[in-house]
Amino acid sequence: MFDVTSIIQTGGLLLIAAIVFAESGMFVGFFFPGDTLLLTAGVFAAQGHLNLELAIIVIALSAIAGDNVGYHIGKHYGRRLFSKPDSLVFRQEYIQRAEKFYERWGSRTMLVAHFVPVVRTFAPPVAGVAKMNYKQYVLFDATGDTAWATIVTLIGYWFGTKIPNVDHYVLLAVAAVMTITLGPTLYHFTKALLEKRRK
User: Fold this and answer.
1) Which of 54, 133, 148, 196 has its CA 20 to 30 A from that of 19?
2) CA–CA dist 31, 28 (Å, integer)
3) How many CA atoms lie within 13 A of 17 on its CB side?
4) C-beta separation of 48 from 90 below 8 A
């Protein structure tokens, strides 16, 4: 289990940037505490340990960079990458989940992908395999990543300014954020699954 407080205290913005980049650029996002990291960064900013504006900019740029690496890997290596057998890090179910999400939402996927764990890791290479127009990809992806970096970090900042010793309750805040961000997705996915079974 990652101790996000120690991560931020030890590595600061540089380590935050490396972890956010690795979520999509190295396909290991589900191992890293993405949303928790952003929330904690927001809390630390509220306590004066980080510069809020700089943190948001670094997080957004790292996410964009990682996503673009993921896109190009998907575009150039395509199905050779996706045909790999399951391993500790790489599992077909992750790819399939991202593909279904992309098929359903198309280019809009990149607007919301970073709000959804696992999907944010594999949506960029799926977009690359699908040969999504790169200019369109960059526009949608950069918008979505910037929104994710801003919203989640600001939620952490808000908690940090309103609740004393909020750093002790970061996991509860993460659960709340996950419920908010995953709720609509899970609703539509469940609805589509039930409709398919009725056919």
Assistant:
1) 133
2) 6
3) 11
4) no
Residue 17: closest CA among 43, 46, 50, 48: 50
pTM for the whole thing?
0.71
CA pair distance 178, 108, nearest whole angstrom: 19
Locate the domains of the chain by residue range: 4-192
Token pair of 195, please? 């409709």
Cα 83 to chain centroid distance, Å, stands at: 23
Angstrom distances, CA of residue 4 to CA of 43, 68, 191: 11, 25, 35
DSSP secondary-structure letter at 146?
H
- Per the CB < 8 A criterion, the answer to whether 45 and 51 are in contact is yes
Q: pLDDT (tens digit, 9 = 90+) per residue, 76-122?
A: 886 676 666 655 455 566 666 666 767 777 677 788 878 877 777 77
Task: Report phi then psi at 164, rounded to 5.
Answer: -60, 140
- Dihedral angle over CA of 172, 174, 176, 178, nearest 10: -150
